[in-house]
Amino acid sequence: MDEPVWSTVSGEESPGKLSLYLVETIAEARGTSADDLDLCLHEYVDVSALTALFESGLTAPTRRGSVTFSVEEVLVTVTVESDDRVEIRAESTPAGATGSPERGRS
What we know:
The protein is of the alpha+beta class. It has 2 helices and 4 strands. It has helices at residues 18-29, 47-55; strands spanning 5-10, 65-71, 74-82, 85-92. A 4-stranded antiparallel beta sheet has the order 1-4-3-2. β3 and β4 (85-92) form a beta hairpin.
């Protein structure tokens, strides 16, 4: 399994960029470019709900939390831990593997 890929979306880069960062981070974890990624993110996660939940966290300091979901062989975790930053972690997993990634960077 490869090392996890991390992206950070800060307040000045939002709104509207979370889904773009998700696609780019997933593509990097799969070893390809976002342009070559052949999937529809909406088939794996409700992007509108995720955007509403986390992008509002960029301006609402009381929101904290994380959501983990799988996109084919990539485990993705979106986390809000600070007032103006959303972290995206994508990690390739062996086919059929399940579970949550460990928090923290190697």
